[in-house]
Amino acid sequence: MSEVAGRVVGRLSGVDRRWRDAPIRTRLTAAAAFAATFAIIAVVAVAYIAVHHELYSNIDGQLRHQAANQHSIRFDPQSLQPEVARDPYQSAGSVQVVDIAGNTIREANGLPLPHNARDVAIASDGGSWLRTQGVEGSPMRILTVRRTAQLSNGQLVTVALQVALPLTAAENELHKLRLAFLLLVLLGFGMATGGTWFVVRRTMRPVARLTSAAEQIAVTRDLTTRIEDYGGDELGRLASTFNTMLDALERSLDQQRQLILDASHELRTPLASLRTNVEVLHDVDRLSLDQRRSLLNGIVTQLDELTGLVADVVELARGEAPETSLEDVALDDLVSHEVDRARRHWQSLVFRYDSQPVVVRGVPARLSRAVANLLDNAGKFSPAGSEVDVSLTSSGVLTVADHGPGIPEDALEQVFDRFYRAEEARGLPGSGLGLSIVKQVVDGHNGTVSISNRAGGGAVVRVALPPAGPPPPPIPSADARQAAQPVR
Fold it and tell me: What is d(CA 113, CA 164) in angstroms, rounded to the nearest whole number?
């Protein structure tokens, strides 16, 4: 028994596996076609049963009406046969009379003797019995009822009256109906299959093109491939989302390539200078002490520049932080900490800080890096003894203003580009990535950043970060809820 069950389960698993391996277009078409066919069969079956019941009900009504006309039966004194009334408005049928002993008193040609005619004849409740039976190769509907017959001497006896009508016409109609319903089912199955295949083929066309595009991209690595727009339904939105994803991937790949090209270009200068200084070390014995110190200081400075450049490139390559790493950050405390660091680093400048408490959602390390870059940028271009004004409002707007030379008007839109450095900054240390990192961090926190020149000279950078929503109210404890209940 277990072996049989195992084979059955194995076959069912094989069928299920083949079904899941079939194309989704085939599965949808088959499922919809069979569902529609099942519904048609159900409707046809109900209609056939209703017609069958109606036809047989009409015949049964005719039999009962004809039997009801036979209230009493008289025997013909000449033929000693019972006289049976005929209804001219009823269909031609057969009438047969059986006495209480089961003997046929009036016999109809070919009408069989019911085995329970005697029971019907002697029944005291005047019951009846309906059945369908073949007579001489033709189906007939037979009704048997209890009646009273009057003999020639006036004596009353109980008999069973049989009234029969042929079912040939009704069965012919039902046979035609069965053929018509069978054709209807086959036609419905064909139309359901064809219509479903057509609809599914059109519906699945975006999926087919999406699959083709994905396969083409996987082979050619060409991210410029796009899928045709198919409207606003689910598949249309899927195609639109896929195109959006390709746009993002293409931009990301272009940015990575540009970053690599820019980084390789920027690395050439410090590496070449560092190589030159290292080669000079071969003749270190011929250098004076001051020359050696200057050479070593230059090497350390170039290594610092390389370290800073690599750190900036890594920061840019990190992209946006995932949602899971965001947390509530007290931005006023974070900016205050970075201002203190800038005061220690730029001791020749005066940093003035005015803030209001504000909390934002973000990554503390990345926000700290962005604020530090803003302060270092202001310190780099500010003359000694000048002031750097730093302010933070409760709406999350951070402003850093310096008293440096400012930015040329034609360069205001380019200062956030990677490795961009204005002509005035060519001789200053740096890689040109500081403000690019600021913009990337601010964009990753759904904020905005802008830069402009102040009227009295210098640059003003404004960063706006959306404040975090108010924290949910604490859930009161059971004791607190009980204490809050009014005293009755």
Answer: 12
Whether 353 and 292 map to the same domain: the answer is no
Please give the radius of gyration of the chain, using alpha carbons only, rounded to the nearest integer.
50
- Residue 268's domain spans which residues? 234-304
Per-residue pLDDT at 90: 43
pTM: 0.44
Distance CA 241, CA 429 (A): 43
28-37 pLDDT per residue, tens? 888 888 888 8
Last residue of a domain, one of 168, 186, 216: 168
Q: Which helix (H) or strand (E) covers residue 362, if one does?
A: strand 359-362
Q: Answer yes or no: do 297 and 340 share one domain.
A: no
The tokens for 141 are 């509907």
pLDDT in tens, 405-460: 888 777 677 677 766 555 554 445 545 677 877 888 888 888 999 888 887 778 88
**Separation of alpha carbons 473 and 99, rounded Å:** 97
Q: Is 16 helix (H, G, I), strand (E, B) or coil?
A: helix
Containing 156, the helix (H) or strand (E) segment is strand 156-166
Three-class SS of residue 197?
helix
**If phi over 0 gives left and psi between -120 and 50 gives alpha, with beta otherwise, what is residue 288?**
beta
Domain boundary among 168, 194, 223: 168
Q: Say if residues 297 and 275 touch (Cβ distance below 8 Å).
A: no
Q: How many domains does the chain have?
A: 3
Cβ atoms of 113 and 138 within 8 Å: the answer is: no
Q: Cβ of 104: how many Cβ atoms within 10 Å?
A: 15
Greatest mean pLDDT range, 98-102, 301-305, 419-423 = 301-305
Is-contact 161 151, C-beta < 8 A?
A: no
- Let me know if residue 480 belongs to a domain: no
Same-domain check for residues 244 and 118: no
